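User: quick one, sequence for these tokens?
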């Protein structure tokens, strides 16, 4: 952009209000022809808006965002394939699925976290498909990372580097917070036995007082 164009864009954005929070300065406009909804990028999740982080970087409001067209789920399992918590019965903004196996279901925030964690190794957590899974996630607004998987970097770093030190449970129960750990007891931090890149408090896991090893959802 030229300086004049940049100033014009800033001036126009300052005059537009976000349809989600109603404050001024909305710089994102829905790409659907005829739709004049504008919003702030940080407000997008609250308004169920989608921004595609590839190509033309198009953005869509809740009404015109792309939607998945998946067949009914073959199994009766109504849990997220990543965090194992309950998901909605039908596909929605918050509940997504794999176009390859048609069976994997996951929360949007879970698959987004996995995408950034897995990097170039991002794939369906159930059937391990990469294409067309990756393209579908990009279209649905999931932001990908071009770096190697975080667990691979941790292995290369070696045991002398800093140990993972926070609870990665979807709902951490520790009153001291995710960073609080103890040597023994319910707030002892258990690291993933495969990658050591994620951890969970003993009480936040499904292990109870068991001494069995714990493995993160990614592994």
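Assistant:
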């Amino acid at each position: 952009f030229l300086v004049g164009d940049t100033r014009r864009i800033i001036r126009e954005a300052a005059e537009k209000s976000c349809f989600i929070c109603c404050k001024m300065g909305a710089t994102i406009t829905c790409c659907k022809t005829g739709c004049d909804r504008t919003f702030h990028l940080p407000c997008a999740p609250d308004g169920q808006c989608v921004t595609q982080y590839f190509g033309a970087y198009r953005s869509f409001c809740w009404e015109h965002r792309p939607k998945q067209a998946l067949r009914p789920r073959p199994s009766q399992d109504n849990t997220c394939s990543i965090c194992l918590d309950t998901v909605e019965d039908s596909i929605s903004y918050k509940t997504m699925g794999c176009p390859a196996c048609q069976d994997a279901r996951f929360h949007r925030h879970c698959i987004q976290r996995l995408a950034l964690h897995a990097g170039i190794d991002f794939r369906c957590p159930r059937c391990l498909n990469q294409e067309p899974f990756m393209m579908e996630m990009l279209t649905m607004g999931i932001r990908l990372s071009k770096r190697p998987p975080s667990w691979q970097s941790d292995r290369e770093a070696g045991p002398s580097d800093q140990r993972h030190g926070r609870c990665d449970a979807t709902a951490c129960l520790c009153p001291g917070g995710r960073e609080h750990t103890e040597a023994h007891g319910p707030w002892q931090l258990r690291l993933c036995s495969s990658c050591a890149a994620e951890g969970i408090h003993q009480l936040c896991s499904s292990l109870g007082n068991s001494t069995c090893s714990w493995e993160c959802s990614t592994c």
